[in-house]
Each structure stands twice: as C-alpha cells, then as structure tokens.
Amino acid sequence: MRTSPLLLALPALSAAQFEQIPFYDQVKGFFAQASNTISSAMPSAPSSPSIPNPVAAGAAKIAAARVQRLTVENYNDILKPGAATASPGIEEWMIFVTGGNKTCFGKCERAETAWNESVALLSASTSPPNLAMLSCEQEPVLCNAWAVGPPTVLHFLLPQPLADQSTPATTCRSFGLNRTTITAPEIAGIHLQEKYLEKTPYEGFFHPFDGPLARYGLSIPVGYAIWGFSLVPSWAFMIAVSFISRSLMSRRMGGGAPAGGAAPAGGAAPAPAAAT
C-alpha cells in the first residue's frame, strides 16, 4: 500500500507548529492584555461594609455594664470617700478619661478599645478597683476643673473617714496613655501589678479632692470659666486687647497735657495785652 506524501508530512507540520513558540507567546500576550483592559474598564463592585471585631464589641458591652459615667452632676456622689461598697481602709478607683474629635482630635479610638478590653482583666482580679469613665467631649467643665485631658487614666485611693469624721488625704495619680501603642495589659497593670506605686502622687492646685480649688468649692466654677474662655474665638481676644491698649494710651496722653493758663515748661511767660 502506497502512503500519500501528505500523510508523511503531517507529523513534520505538527512539530513545526509547536516549535513556533514566539508566535504562540505573542497571541497569548495579546489576549492577556485585552483581558486586563476589559477588566479595568468594568466598574468595580462596591466593597462590603467592614465587619466589627467581635472581641472589641464584646469588651465594649462588658465595659458599658461595669463602668460608671462621670458627669458634673454625679461625680461627687459616685467618688465619695468611705462609700458603702468600700473595703476597710481605702477605696480604689480607676477613671478612664477619653474624648472625641474636638478634645482628642479623633485619636482616642485605640485607647478606648484597650480600656474596654482591660475591664475584663481588672474585674477578674481578687480585689477589683471601682471603674469609671469621663468624656471630655461631653463633660468639658469637669475635665477643665481637674485640668486633665484625654487619653488618661486617673488612679484614686479614697480613704474612709476616721473616727473623728476627719478625712485623710486622697491619693491621686495620673497616667497619660499613648494614642497609638497603648494595650489592655498596660492599663490593667496599673492595678494588677501595682504600677501606680511607681508614680508620684499629684498634690497640685487642681487636685480633685484636696487642692485649694476643691477645698473652697471653686473647682467647678473655675472649670466653667476655663471652658467659657475656650469658646471665645482668638480674633475676639485680639480686638479686646487692641481696644484696651488704645484706651490706656489715650488716657496717658490726655493726663499729661498742661492745665489751662499755665505757662509751658521751659518757655517765657506770655506778654501782657497792649493798652488801647
């Protein structure tokens, strides 16, 4: 049986076709480029909303149930030395000071998450402290009265009254929190590892319980005054300063003028009028 020359040439043609790799790569590259062009031209699907962190959400709920909110109206009733829930001797408090866009420039979110997570650690200790939160965004008067800004943790040791009803000094310590690196174990360590003992107590003018303002009942009025000044725009202060300075200058210039009829200093007396 005679074999057709065309049949004999098919294997060679097939081998030659697969050996033309450059041409195959060019075609493949063309289709790949076309696919990328079409994909970039098509509108992207809207991104799905972010799913909240279940751990952070659960910690926030625990903190909301166990942390008391301080306000100008209730802080004296809540932070009362010798409360009924106090253990014999001293009542320990940890107060988290936070803020919002105005008072914390929108950078207190990490600190709030760390605080919420630390609440579970603090509550599980053998002698948990009392916990409270102060928002300078909602309570600017109280923050100004205490001269405290967010994010901060205030640690108080409130002593019970003595037998003669006198109250010993209250120990106050302030811990400023890093807005970008603070963690829950660091906050919990203030109590669990007694880190507060490494901090020098505050005994200054704005002490919430034993400072001069608090003893004479002026802390809240001063807080209102500072908060009121913060609401006044800077240009109003400039106008007021300019007006006061001009008033003082005009008074000085007016007070230095010679009285009527008096001879000017260093000059001759005026000549008498000629007789008519």
UniProtKB/TrEMBL annotation:
Keyword Transmembrane helix assigned: yes
The entry's keywords: Membrane, Signal, Transmembrane, Transmembrane helix
Membrane-spanning segments: 224-244
Domain of life, per lineage: Eukaryota
Signal peptide: 1-16
The protein's name: Peptidyl-tRNA hydrolase
